[in-house]
């Protein structure tokens, strides 16, 4: 039966509920949504439902009585499905499947392979995901890296459950920040040629500005010294922003993050889209003039106050450009816009929510994910950074030191809206203390097992070829039940825009796998193992970072061939799920480590 067990439980309850409704035993006017979840304690069963408590007020009966009625029906009609149906106060239905039913989970994984965990709940709806969008005024830092990893993971998760996702980077290549960049680079450019210069007090510091200025000097010589300074500064801004943007694109490509669209803020000005957006708001009486400035009446949509969109001198505010940009996004036909912003933009959310509503779209058409700061540590010691002083650790430096896989996993281990401590030394460790190594090693360890099996000419059987009764003991069932949760973890991570749920799941699954594998022999012993103590497929992850010999005494008795076959079939599905989960996060699933 190619259906998730959780859904089978829901359908069984729905059948019984429909039956008692039809018979009049329960006077149900509207059948509620039936939800089943794993209970907090495994001894309570495989799944638990509170549907009886939901129904109680409607049918005017005590929840326990409703639950008992449903339990009686489930026991009678689905005795071949559930080995136990219990009722617990104040009205929970606790369901325990027949153990062999869990083999369906392994069969689904084997049948679906890399597609296990995917679904179609998104129904092809179009999502525009905008993330990173760092100003091209400097290299990407670790905070941008967290946003990049988050955006990539969210995009992959949404696509895996049936949404159509477009990734976009908004290039802030207009306004005061670019002017400051031009002035900063021009000042360093003049210094390069030994000319007097006045570095802007609020300009961009850091060695990268000097590097950019030297590049400008190399390509343009002293030509920019001859003309007006404002023209030279503008030219420096153009050259510098393009150079820095190229560096940003290169860093993101190295990090494995790509965008379908790079949208330039300058294009909004050049095409008149900002003025068009403001004109539309004027027609709707949502843009009013006061004291010579034009104010967006965002307070009508829940913002704490109205906001200036166009200043007295006719220049546009940042808000005006952002309003035009979001209007343009929505007019491209996307069902939902998702923006990933730094946590310092929290106060900007009501303005953008007001914007989408002002242009005739639902507030829910815009979703904002806020990303908190990252603190870098080395061996527990915090690395001090000051962006204003130009002293910060770039994303490229982190990638070069720990690798893109470790960087992504660490960025994704915590909720995006919580502070993240990133320990560079821990990220490089090859030990069980390093979460990404721990998960990747689980995959590599199984790959090694299958290679050893092949070398020993042990056949890797399909699930239907093994004695499935050997896979319904407690330890095996524990693994299978965790595998069964994977599709729900993926769906929950996607809909909540929370990839950390998946990283937590993978760590839990890896821990179960390592514990199971260290305790249970899979391949038969060789004569050489009995002599030397080399257990071949055994071994565990040592705290020093290497694959260590098992701390347990070697198992010398022969393992029955049918048990080897069953365990190999089980572990093949574990490997598939680990691979699927890592791939969704944009992290490699290595065959060797």
- Arithmetic mean of pLDDT: 91
Task: List the strand order in the largest sheet.
Answer: 7-6-5-11-12
DSSP strand count: 17
Radius of gyration equals: 30 Å
Total number of distinct structural domains: 3
Largest sheet: 5 strands, parallel
CATH topology of the largest domain: Rossmann fold
Main structural class: alpha/beta
CATH class of the largest domain: Alpha Beta
| Tertiary shape | flat
Helix content: 40-55%
Number of helical segments with 4 or more residues: 20
CATH superfamily of the largest domain: HUPs
Describe this structure in words.
β5 (126-130), α5 (142-160) and β6 (164-171) form a beta-alpha-beta unit. The protein starts with a helix and ends in a 9-residue tail after the last helix. The chain has 593 residues and is of the alpha/beta class. The strands form five sheets. The chain has a five-stranded parallel sheet with strand order 7-6-5-11-12, sandwiched between helices. Strands 1-2-4-3 form a four-stranded antiparallel sheet, with helices on one face. 48% of the residues lie in helices and 13% in strands. It folds into three domains: 5-97, 2-Layer Sandwich (Gyrase A, domain 2); 131-259 and 372-428, HUPs (Rossmann fold), CATH 3.40.50.620; 435-584, Orthogonal Bundle (Isoleucyl-tRNA Synthetase, Domain 1).
